[in-house]
């Protein structure tokens, strides 16, 4: 097994205790930082993604893998310019007003970040006004909203309407997700897409953030 494959395997297994050390060894042996990111860290998450989608890996395992990747990234990141890190675009994400559930949202963030997106996390209980202000501030390609309660799903439409009224929808796609949602609901509220899980969210962002 090459050292890069070993790093990818360490990420895939969620071995965050060793990911930093293996990354450091690769740096010390002269491997280019971007090669470490692409062929080690991201390659590891690329093994996780289809397995999670196929139901062969579960949420805790995916979170551990994402954490292992983050540990490696912390080690390698100081060696590269931000501009050198391939970014697929910026995604602004938050759990809507009145809703405090964030486990699913945080998983989506981890998968998006490990998939090469810059993510701005607005947290939970994010008001319509905060989404609109952040859209103006960060100029993201995609805004993602999460809701776990049937009573808070409605805040998604309010946010989409406010973004439209603020004239921000032209270059901005909105995606929604969360257990009580459906593709049909996303269509009804004028969202550009619905993702049933974190992997689907990444695929959707890849399609929309062009
Ligand atoms: Co709450 N809760 N909860 N809860 N809670 C649910 C959602 C509920 C279904 C439980 C139940 O009754 N069976 C129910 C909602 C019922 C309904 O609305 N029909 C419920 C309720 C009622 C409540 C309270 C009102 C309870 C009370 O106080 N009486 C209260 C509300 C608080 C509030 O938000 N204002 C409440 C509180 C809490 C806790 C704080 C205790 C805790 C949240 C902790 C936290 O998030 N930090 C909690 C939890 C943990 C749950 C359950 C058990 C688990 C949710 C979860 O994390 N799932 C949940 C029951 C359940 O779902 N089985 C429940 C794991 C997570 C990985 O999945 O979030 O679905 P999920 O995310 C997935 C996808 O949905 C998708 O990708 C993720 C990963 O694959 N996804 C996106 C999510 N967001 C996305 C965004 C995207 C794309 C995909 O794009 C932007």
Automatic annotation (TrEMBL):
InterPro entries: Cbl-bd_cap, Cobalamin-bd, Cobalamin-bd_sf, Met_Synthase/Corrinoid, Meth_synthase_dom
Alphabetized SUPFAM superfamilies for the sequence: Cobalamin (vitamin B12)-binding domain (SSF52242), Methionine synthase domain (SSF47644)
PROSITE patterns reported for this sequence: B12_BINDING, B12_BINDING_NTER
Keywords assigned: Cobalt, Metal-binding, Methyltransferase, Transferase
SMART domains to which the protein is assigned, alphabetical: B12-binding_2
Enzyme category, top tier: transferase
GO molecular function terms noted in the UniProt entry: cobalamin binding; metal ion binding; methionine synthase activity
Domain B12-binding intervals: 88-210
Gene Ontology CC: one annotated term: cytosol
GO terms under biological process: homocysteine metabolic process; methylation; tetrahydrofolate metabolic process
Keyword Amino-acid biosynthesis annotated: no
Occurrences of domain B12-binding N-terminal (ranges): 1-88
EC code(s) of this entry: 2.1.1.13
Similarity field: Belongs to the methylamine corrinoid protein family.
Name of the protein in question: Methionine synthase
Organism, as annotated: bioreactor metagenome
């Amino acid at each position: 097994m090459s050292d890069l494959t070993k790093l990818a395997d360490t990420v895939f297994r969620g071995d965050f205790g060793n990911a930093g050390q293996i990354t450091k060894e690769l740096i010390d042996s002269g491997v280019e930082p971007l090669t470490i990111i692409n062929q080690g860290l991201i390659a590891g998450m690329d093994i996780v993604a289809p397995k999670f989608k196929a139901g062969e890996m579960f949420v805790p395992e995916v979170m551990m893998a994402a954490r292992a990747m983050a540990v490696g990234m912390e080690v390698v990141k100081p060696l590269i310019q931000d501009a050198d890190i391939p970014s697929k675009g910026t995604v602004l994400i938050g759990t809507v007003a009145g809703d405090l559930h964030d486990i699913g949202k945080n998983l989506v963030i981890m998968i998006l970040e490990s998939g090469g997106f810059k993510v701005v996390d607005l947290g939970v209980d994010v008001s319509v006004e905060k989404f609109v202000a952040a859209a103006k501030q960060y100029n993201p390609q995609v805004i993602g909203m999460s809701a776990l309660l049937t009573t808070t799903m409605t805040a998604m439409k309010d946010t989409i309407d406010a973004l439209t009224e603020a004239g921000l929808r032209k270059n901005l796609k909105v995606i929604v997700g969360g257990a009580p949602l459906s593709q049909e609901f996303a269509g009804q509220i004028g969202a550009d897409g619905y993702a049933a899980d974190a992997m689907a969210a990444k695929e959707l962002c890849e399609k929309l953030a062009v």
